[in-house]
Specification:
The protein is mainly alpha-helical and 442 residues long. The chain is 71% helix and 2% strand. A two-stranded antiparallel sheet has the order 1-2. Helix 6 packs antiparallel against helix 7. It is globular.
Length: 442
């Protein structure tokens, strides 16, 4: 134990992040089908590092490399640790799924296995890396790496539907990256405007700089929409219901469970949430838009989802609906800065709860396709657990996450919004009923 603790405390954080990238360099096309084990071990260093840091580490654990890029600064963030842990566990489980498929022969005849493994490892590197990146340059680089490498997961099957979904995905990705790049550069310029030396600001300096800037509303809008593409924001979500049905099942699980949270993380790191009322007063339009789009996403996606004919499409619309609820939570915290600390705890709990349960439901699609008879019904019954969690029935993680938020807004002058958020469970219930209806027979 002491040796493991020593290794965790002395290992630079970039090595934990870049380990999957090193594995990607070792993937060869002629031996790729025997390299499924790489997907299992790729997230393990980060998983062990987070667990030991969380249990024995210090909040100020960080790694600095001043000469790299604009000054690399990576750290374990106490607030984002639950999302990092959830994402790492989900990637590990999905890697097990791929390894078993290749080992059992069910996925051995899939084309482009080598490209699939490389894109998987590159996407994993970006996804976990952006959760520990504290400087703007490396955060954007890792976010872009995750975004564009995931294109290979979407088009893996090379069918017409997969290639069409890939086109929509890449168009939305380029749009989102353009908005993000503009917002981050503009925000960084505002943060460094008063500096006597050309020191690149860290990402945690952006919220205050944006709040105090005369152009804060425009910068915040760029970042909100840019990250909103990845978060499945209503109106920017169209890649989700197209990409999930065509991507392999484990890829769909990490796309919806882990990667979609990258948009939320971007909001939490860059937007002026919390703080003093005066600094937020000049941009009330953006959080109002956030609440409205979250409301549209929560209920509108449910309407589209219940008419879908594929289980993975239903789950994709469910993700848009759930992220719509999270968007409402973020917008509410933005409008009422004094309540933000409590709302932030609810947002983190909701994101972790959604990621794990949605990942299990996506795995269930693949499991049910491979099973027959009594085993199939046993799995179908077990899948009721994550479904009921998402709905938020009593004594589940969904009830806990939603109650955290409802306890806060019950004391705020939100009017009808409280009921709209509460009745969001009905939308989730309709989607889960449709999911099981489509899964009822092989």
């Amino acid at each position: 134990m002491s040796l493991l603790m020593y290794l965790v405390h002395t290992t630079p954080i970039p090595l934990l992040v870049l380990f999957p990238l090193l594995l990607a360099l070792c993937v060869r096309a002629d031996t790729a089908r025997r390299r499924g084990w790489m997907l299992i071990i790729a997230p393990l260093p980060m998983l062990l590092g987070v667990l030991f840091w969380y249990c024995y580490g210090q909040p100020e654990t960080f790694t600095e490399v001043p000469w790299l890029m604009l000054g690399l600064h990576w750290r374990f963030d106490t607030v984002l640790t639950p999302i990092l842990l959830m994402s790492t566990v989900l990637w590990f489980a999905a890697g097990l799924y791929v390894w078993y498929s290749l080992r059992s022969g069910t996925g051995a005849d899939e084309p482009h296995i080598g490209r699939y493994l490389r894109c998987w490892l590159l996407t994993l590197t970006g996804n976990l890396g952006l959760l520990v990146a504290a400087d703007i340059a490396s955060f954007y680089t890792l976010f872009a790496l995750m975004t564009f490498a995931a294109y290979g997961l979407v088009i893996h099957d090379q069918t017409k539907r997969a290639l069409f979904a890939g086109k929509i995905y890449i168009i939305m990705a380029v749009l989102g990256e353009g908005l993000l790049f503009s917002g981050l550069i503009w925000g960084a310029a505002q943060a460094a405007g008063g500096a006597l030396t050309p020191v690149a600001p860290l990402i945690h300096e952006l919220p205050l700089a944006i709040a105090n800037s005369d152009y804060g509303m425009y910068i915040a809008l760029l970042l909100f929409l840019g990250f909103g593409v990845k978060a499945g924001l209503a109106g920017l979500h169209w890649w989700l219901p197209l990409a999930h049905p065509v991507a392999p099942t484990p890829a769909s699980a990490v796309l919806s469970g882990a990667m979609i949270k990258a948009g939320l993380v971007g909001w939490l790191l860059t937007l002026p949430l919390g703080g003093d009322l005066e600094s937020a007063a000049n941009m009330e339009l953006v959080p109002t838009i956030a609440v409205l789009l979250g409301l549209i996403g929560a209920y509108g996606a449910a309407v589209l989802g219940v008419f879908s004919k594929k289980a993975k499409t239903v789950l994709a619309y469910s993700s848009v609906s759930q992220m719509g609820m999270i968007t409402m939570m973020v917008g509410t915290g933005w409008l009422y800065p004094h309540a933000w600390p409590a709302i932030l705890a609810a947002v983190i709990a909701f994101a972790v709860h959604h990621g794990l349960n949605k990942g299990l439901l996506f795995f269930g699609v693949g499991w049910l396709k491979a099973l027959h008879g009594r085993a199939r019904w046993v799995v179908l019954v077990l899948l009721l657990i994550p479904a009921l969690n998402l709905i938020g029935v009593p004594f589940t993680s969904g009830e806990y996450a939603k109650d955290l938020f409802k306890d806060v807004i019950s004391g705020l002058p939100v009017g009808l919004f409280y009921a709209l958020f509460t009745y969001g469970a009905l939308a989730t219930t309709a989607l889960m009923i449709r999911y099981f209806y489509l899964q009822r027979r092989p």
